[in-house]
Structures are given as C-alpha cells and as structure tokens.
Amino acid sequence: MLKHSPSVPCRSQRSLVKLVPKLISHTKVCVEGTLQPHKHTTRALKPKPPHKPHQTEPFPHVVRAGAVFIPIHVVKKKLFPKLPGVSVDRVLQEHKVELRPTTLSEERHLRDMELKGCTSRMLKLLALKQLPEIYPDLLNLHWHNSIKQQLGSHSKTGKNPSK
C-alpha cells in the first residue's frame, strides 16, 4: 500500500482539483456583468466515481497542509494565455494575493509533471481557494483585451466598424 505524501493529493483533493476547470468552463457572464453559475455546475458538484490511476490530472498542482495550490503558470499560460502577464500580476496585487514559493521537492514534483521549462518565478504557488476571488477580474480583463484586439485588427485592415 502506498503512503500518502504531502506532494501527492489524496482522492478527495484530486477530485477538487478536477472540479475547478469544470466550474470555470461552466460559468457564464450575464448581460449585467455578474457571474452566474451555469445549470450544469450543480451536476459537476455531484460526487465522482472512484479515481482511476490511469487518469491524468487537468493541471499540475501541489498539496500542502491539506490545501491545494497551483503554479501561477497555470493561470497565466493555461487559463488566460492571451492576457499579458503584467495584467495578471496587477489583478493579484489588487486582491492582495500572495504567491508562495515552492519547496525543492514541490518544484521537482511540478517539473516532473509537465513544467520542465518553467522558470522558478512561474512556479510560485497560488492557493486554489483564491482562484474564485480573482477569476471574475481576470475574465473581465480577458474580455476587454479581446475586444481591443478585434477593434485593432479592424482599424489595421482599413475597415470602419461604424459604417
């Protein structure tokens, strides 16, 4: 029987880690600008069948003292790849989110998972419980950034959106 190590999540923590991308993908923005859970979110919250060893995790993570942490790389390069890193950093500062450094064993674990080419700075850890706090602002920035890019591409091609 395998012993539970601090860097390997237990079954309930793995299911929590798998739940976050589902919650994020099932969140929709209402016309009023507020976030409302999608009707399928309640289905995503139902208990999951037992974890199968051949399944891969949705993204790299670390478990420390029972809490799940994700590297900031996940937020910057996977969840919001089109947002400038400076914008993500600004949102983190506004919310006073503190990124925690990884221990050597955690860094080794993350690099073994899939982050071989990441700098140590991109491996700093964000508590998963803080993601819902910053996610609406990041989504808003992503939306504004996408609109600016679309408007910029129309002006570069000579199209006038008002005509």
Notable characteristics:
163 residues; mainly alpha; two-stranded antiparallel sheet; 45% helix; elongated
User: In one word, what is the shape?
Assistant: elongated
Which regions are unreliable across 5 or more consecutive residues at pLDDT < 50? 26-33
Q: What structural category arises from helix and sheet content?
A: mainly alpha
State the strand order across the main sheet.
Answer: 3-4-5
Strand fraction equals: 5-15%
Extended strand count: 5
Instruction: Compute the average pLDDT.
Output: 76
Question: C-alpha Rg, in Å?
Answer: 18 Å
Q: What is the number of helices?
A: 6
User: Major sheet, described briefly?
Assistant: 3 strands, antiparallel
**Helicity, as a percent range:** 40-55%
Alpha-carbon distance between the termini? 70 Å
The run of helices and strands is HEEHEEHHHEH
Descriptive notes:
By secondary structure, this protein is mostly helical. It is built from six helices and five strands. β3 (62-64) and β4 (67-71) form a beta hairpin. α4 packs antiparallel against α6 (131-156).
Task: Summarize the SSE layout with pairings.
Layout: H1 11-25, E1 27-29, E2 35-37, H2 41-44, E3 62-64, E4 67-71, H3 72-79, H4 85-94, H5 104-113, E5 125-127, H6 131-156
Antiparallel strand pairs: 1-2, 3-4, 4-5
Helix pairs in contact: 4-6
